[in-house]
Amino acid sequence: MGTKVAFKWSRNITPSQVMHLIKKERNIDKALAIFDSATAEYANGFRHDQNTFGVMISRLVSANKFGPAEDLLDRMRVEKCDIKEDVFLSICRGYGRIHRPLDAIRVFDKMKEFQSEPSQKSYITVFDILVEENQLKVALRFYRHMRDVGVPTSVASLNILIKALCKNSGTMNSALHIFREMPNRGFTPDSYTYGTLINGFCRFGKITEAKELFEEMKARDCSPSVVTYSSLIHGLCQSKNVDEAMGLLEEMKSNSIEPNVFTYSSLMDGLCKDERSSEAMELLETMISKRCKPNTITYSTIINGLCKEGKLHEAVEILDRMKLQGLQPDAGLYGKIISGFCDIDKFREAANFLDEMVLGRTLPNRLTWSIHVRIHNMVVRGLCTKSDLSQAFQLYLSMRTRGISVEVETFHTLMKSFCKKGDLQKAARIVDEMVADGCIPEEGSWTILLGAFWDQRMVQEALEVFQAELMSEFTEADVEMHGKAL
């Protein structure tokens, strides 16, 4: 790392002093330098212990510096420092957080090399990471391995197994079977077990089954959590039972369970799809008054609903609120507002939002490319129909500069508009660039362009004949006047 630490250690360094300094230092490289400089004080009798190593490894994992963290693990073994499983598990969880589950297994396997036998807690942690990361085949193999090595079955391990089986509609029945068998094996399902199954049924549109489990859960004095309520509310909204979902929101409040951003966003989505965007707006105000911060999904849901109902003024207001909160609208969101203005023939407003999107550096990526192409072409063609050719041409040039594909229909519209205006130079340029892009103009386009050039040529010739006649008349009159004078 090469970071120097400019302070003097006291004669008697203690592990707690080192830990305090490492925790306090925000810069990870400086924290590691503190750790190393303490090691340099071996002459004073200080050696790192499992606590100082543990804190430093935890800091490195939080900063996604997994190489240095694993190096410290090896150093603990060299220095014959006692290693507890929590140190390994902090690294495993870190790998799970950054979606590298196979590295989590690798570190778990390292435990035996370090003469640290994994406990039930370690097995359950790794099993959960594999399921969370959808490594279901590996997870089920790992579960069988747990059984083979004699790890006792528990409610926690069965909950994770049920969660794995709830990931696919084809294995939902197996999940339900294990759940029904739990009491016979001496295990009592908890709120997490019920919540997992309810979430699974809702995900696959089996709302009746989800509702039955929800009622059973309450009958057994198993309190639903905010996650379980939110799963059911989301499922009800997806199946167009919005009023029933709103009833659950009231039930949550009466049970003193605070809805979260997912609860509110799900309800707003249901209301907007039911063309009840004004109720969704009221819910947004309630949410904010409860100090629950809307996120990008919340705002997107309402803006989509408002645009669908043609309430563009309100949609723009919500977009502004979103930006004031420091959230950047994406291309899809701008696309909805721009399309909304295009639908009511307000192409200048649409062009202004297109400019705002570009200035806000909402750049095309693999997922949003088609949205950028569609809205840019739509606005250029719209501006042409409104005879705002100057702005249409500027936007066309901007598209070419930024590599956004120009559609054949847009080329034709621009070319026809310039021909109609009599700006044949620009019309010819459009055709040139169209051909350069590999688009072959249709026969009608050539006819219009050639016709315009021909008309201009005929006008030019007529002007020349008229000018010639005029000049000859002046000349004749001049000769006649001179003759009289003589």
Automatic annotation (TrEMBL):
A Pfam family recorded for this sequence: PPR_2
Q: Does the keyword Nucleotide-binding apply?
A: no
Q: Which GO terms describe its molecular function?
A: mRNA binding
In residue terms, where are the PPR repeats?
154-189, 190-224, 225-259, 260-294, 295-329, 330-364, 372-406, 407-441
Q: Which of UniProt's keywords are assigned here? A: Repeat
InterPro entries tied to this protein: PPR_rpt, TPR-like_helical_dom_sf
Task: Name the family.
Answer: Belongs to the PPR family. P subfamily.
> Could you identify this protein by its name?
Pentacotripeptide-repeat region of PRORP domain-containing protein
What organism is this sequence from? Corchorus capsularis (Jute)
